């Protein structure tokens, strides 16, 4: 079993990620971890020039930390499974940057006074990639590393065609697919996932209003109950095929022990889906 980590606490997640990194690369300085988490705290707390604090209530800092923790655990499992191409410290660091910035597209500029960042639901992946490019360029990262981070962020798009993403190496693609897997599993395995679905509905509703109601079916729900009723279908018809096929089944590296031990994330998601089915069965559709 994985240790219990409070994903509402950035320092707790940072400590666990640093522990994972040290277990993989004991000879490598982990100072990069501290800098990266410090940047993340600035982004979400409104202490980065030109941006407000995050005000999206579902896609908040905890959501990002849930994915970050899952990614570190998955990469550790993959590394110790001896899979090739072998993970190196630099690609771990780029993956960390990408997962920590993958939802910065929900941040509002300082002069943006209308609504919440949830209005950018349909464009947040593009906005996140742009944010990453600008920030990493400002910090002196080279173009190759910046593009790698952007490629990884693009893997979190709901309808992205993965074949169009210009990965420059097999390892970059592997970490990108691990990130896409972790973004999905991290949130859906959360103990309060079911309770937070009405908050996600409000984000979808705001996005639909912002786009004049011309929203794709993926976010077009009439009420929170309809979203909750459709979530088991979302898991069965979208998420499960996505992580099993499109992302190459990397979720298996979260099994402890690998490859046949229990998978905490899948077990937690199945429990959440069962809870949703029970709740929605007890109330007729509205």
Q: Can you tag this structure with a few keywords?
A:
286 residues, mainly alpha, Catalytic domain of cyclic nucleotide phosphodiesterase 4b2b
3D architecture notes:
The chain is globular and about 60 Å long. The protein has helices at residues 10-24, 31-45, 61-80, 89-101, 124-138, 143-154, 170-188, 193-210, 224-246, 264-281. By secondary structure, it is mainly alpha-helical. The protein has one domain (10-281): Catalytic domain of cyclic nucleotide phosphodiesterase 4b2b (Orthogonal Bundle). It is built from 10 helices and no strands.
Question: Which secondary structure elements does this structure contain, and how are they paired or packed?
Answer:
Elements: H1 10-24, H2 31-45, H3 61-80, H4 89-101, H5 124-138, H6 143-154, H7 170-188, H8 193-210, H9 224-246, H10 264-281
Helix pairs in contact: 1-2, 1-3, 2-4, 3-4, 3-7, 4-6, 4-7, 5-6, 6-7, 7-9, 8-9, 9-10
- Total individual domains: 1
What is the number of beta strands? 0
Structural class: mainly alpha
Rough outline? globular
Q: Let me know the average pLDDT.
A: 95
Total count of helical runs of at least 4 residues: 10
What does the radius of gyration come to? Answer: 18 Å
CATH fold description: Catalytic domain of cyclic nucleotide phosphodiesterase 4b2b
Please give the CATH class. Mainly Alpha
Low-confidence stretches: none
Largest sheet: none
Helix content: 55-70%
Return the CATH architecture: Orthogonal Bundle
Q: What's the quaternary structure here? A: single chain
Euclidean distance between termini CA atoms: 40 Å
Strand content: under 5%
